[in-house]
């Protein structure tokens, strides 16, 4: 596989803050690759380095075969970058923004119309509207168009779905799927674990380090012990009770349920379920349902955060 | 008789000129409930919340919040609610203690109350020695948890949370939900707005606004069953029309 991005030992600090701590990974040409991690994990720093906007302290980054430090002028014509903060001209209309970004890259909206048509068609009805007056989802689509007008070979999208509603988020991921089908490499960051499944592969990032790089399925499957979902009509009291259960390894709220893992590794899952059920029923909890759960990327993320975060959180 | 409803809205309506932002919405929130209030951009959520927090007079309909009338008792409502958003919560250039004193002062607490509640709060978070740290210097994770407890400082009956766990790491997120559940179990009603449907799944009940009306209301499990799907995201997408490009 051709590598679109090769990063080795990349590090960056800002004064005392370590934003990236010797990060290494490769992204294949044509991949839809996601960086998933909370605010402050280092995602934006990484994206700015890959987009030639920031110089790392050490380590190397190659994008499309070129070294990001040094080849920035040739690279900038080949990459598209959509920053996390809306960076278009709010006082220009949809169409004016597109014409402006086309002209910056020496092309015209007419020439590029066909390429961006699948996305632009959703915006065209509002082409005279000021960019600042668009909804969050529409702004993101316009920004995506503007990042595509110069026919980049790779796209870097920093948190494109933050702050937009669920319908717009889904539409945006569908668009990325279409671009990928057209052969474009897309690198996307998000703090939302449930978006992992839209990517071919993801890297989990926390405190400037990568916790895992793999397909979302493989990451979820890497959760290596039985996971039990406990449903209860009194979630908080049930959580407290399970904290006191002598065999509890972890128990935490997970959506409508509680996710539980047991400290004993040799116990058959069926027996574990029965024991939990009788423990809770003996304490008169009502509406108790205990069933095996399929681990998600979010469960795996927490398992990999492990001791490091636990100490920080207790600090 | 003790109150069982924290929020009671009946046919609550707000028009702006010819545009009806909120169209006869009717719903109740029970005391101690964690209630999720969802809707697409422009569906009317913000207008509804501004009415429920005493910031905007309704055009018609009725609503009480913590027992106070939204038309005539807006000031009392403001005193009995708390608010926290993911984007703005604490002043970064003030220390933890200064933030707490500022909020305590705004809500007219005595020095004694501020002192005692600050102590309880910091020990609850296990950061007793950190009160003189600038908020900017503390990790994002517990900044959010602290902001939540500060929003509860004046012991509001209802706390409004806007995307409370957006952007935090998954362990912090769970600790945050535990704080929310703990507050709810001691009788504080929690009103959550969010764009993130997996966050909505943590609520006891949710409502989804569509074009100024309440399109669906129920427990996450009920709604999923009703729409025959396994995620609230799917329920939401089926209910909400595609965005039309307009702002809120």
Which short descriptors sum up this protein?
heterodimer; A: 315 residues; alpha/beta; 6-stranded mixed sheet; elongated; B: 248 residues; 4-stranded antiparallel sheet; 9 helices; 10 strands; globular; disordered C terminus
How would you explain this protein's 3D organization?
The complex is a heterodimer of chains A (315) and B (248). With 315 residues, chain A is an alpha/beta fold. Chain A is built from ten helices and 14 strands. In chain A, strands 6-7-8-3-9-10 form a six-stranded mixed sheet, sandwiched between helices. In chain A, strands 2-1-4-5 form a four-stranded antiparallel sheet, with helices on one face. In chain A, a hairpin with a 2-residue loop joins strand 12 and strand 13. In chain A, helix 3 packs parallel to helix 5 and helix 5 packs parallel to helix 6. The C terminus of chain A is likely disordered. By secondary structure, chain B is α/β, with parallel strands linked by helices. Helices cover 35% and strands 26% of the residues of chain B. In chain B, strands 6-7-8-3-9-10 form a six-stranded mixed sheet. In chain B, strand 4 and strand 5 form a beta hairpin. The relative contact order of chain B is 0.17.
């Amino acid at each position: 596989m051709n590598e679109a991005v090769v990063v080795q030992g990349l590090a960056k600090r800002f004064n005392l803050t370590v934003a990236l701590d010797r990060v290494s990974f490769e992204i294949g040409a044509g991949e839809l690759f996601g960086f998933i991690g909370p605010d402050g994990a280092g995602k934006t720093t990484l994206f700015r380095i890959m987009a030639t906007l920031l110089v790392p302290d050490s380590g190397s980054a190659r994008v499309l075969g070129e070294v990001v430090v040094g080849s920035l002028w040739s690279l900038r014509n080949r990459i598209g970058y959509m920053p996390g903060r809306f960076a278009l001209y709010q006082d220009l209309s949809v169409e004016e923004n597109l014409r402006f970004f086309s002209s910056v890259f020496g092309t015209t909206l007419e020439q590029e119309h066909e390429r961006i048509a699948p996305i632009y068609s959703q915006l065209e009805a509002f082409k005279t509207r000021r960019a600042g007056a668009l909804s969050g989802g529409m702004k993101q689509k316009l920004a995506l168009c503007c990042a595509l007008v110069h026919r980049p070979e790779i796209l870097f999208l920093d948190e494109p779905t933050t702050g937009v509603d669920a319908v717009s988020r889904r539409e945006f991921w569908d668009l990325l799927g279409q671009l990928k089908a057209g052969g474009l490499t897309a690198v996307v960051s998000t703090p939302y674990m449930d978006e992992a499944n839209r990517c071919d592969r993801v890297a989990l990032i926390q405190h400037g380090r990568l916790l895992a790089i793999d397909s979302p399925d493989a990451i979820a499957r890497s959760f290596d012990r039985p996971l039990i979902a406990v449903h209860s009509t009194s979630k908080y009291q049930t959580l407290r009770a399970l904290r006191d259960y002598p065999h509890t390894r972890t128990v935490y709220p997970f959506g409508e349920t509680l996710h539980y893992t047991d400290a004993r590794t040799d116990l058959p899952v069926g027996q574990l379920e029965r024991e939990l059920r009788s423990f809770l029923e003996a304490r008169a909890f009502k509406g108790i349902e205990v069933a095996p759960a399929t681990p998600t990327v979010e469960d795996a993320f927490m398992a990999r955060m492990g001791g490091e975060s636990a100490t920080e959180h207790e600090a | 008789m003790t109150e069982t409803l924290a929020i009671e809205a009946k046919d609550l309506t707000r028009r702006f000129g010819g545009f009806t932002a909120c169209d006869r919405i009717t719903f109740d929130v029970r005391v101690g409930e964690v209630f999720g209030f969802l809707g697409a951009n422009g569906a009317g959520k913000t207008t509804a919340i501004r009415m429920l927090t005493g910031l905007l007079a309704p055009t018609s309909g009725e609503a009480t919040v913590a027992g106070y009338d939204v038309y005539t008792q807006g000031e009392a409502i403001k005193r009995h609610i708390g608010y926290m958003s993911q984007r703005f919560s604490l002043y970064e250039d003030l220390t933890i203690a200064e933030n707490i004193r500022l909020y305590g002062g705004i809500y007219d607490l005595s020095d004694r109350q501020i002192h005692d509640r600050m102590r309880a709060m910091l020990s609850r978070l296990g950061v007793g020695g950190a009160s003189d740290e600038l908020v900017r210097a503390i990790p994002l994770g517990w900044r959010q948890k602290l902001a939540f407890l500060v929003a509860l400082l004046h012991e509001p009956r209802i706390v409004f949370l806007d995307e409370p766990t957006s952007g935090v790491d998954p362990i912090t997120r769970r600790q945050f939900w535990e704080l929310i559940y703990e507050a709810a179990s001691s009788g504080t009603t929690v009103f959550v707005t969010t764009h993130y449907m997996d966050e909505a799944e943590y609520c006891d009940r949710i409502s989804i606004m569509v074009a100024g009306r309440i399109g669906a209301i129920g427990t996450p499990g009920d709604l999923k069953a009703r729409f025959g799907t396994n995620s609230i995201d799917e329920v939401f997408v089926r209910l909400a029309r595609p965005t039309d490009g307009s702002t809120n």
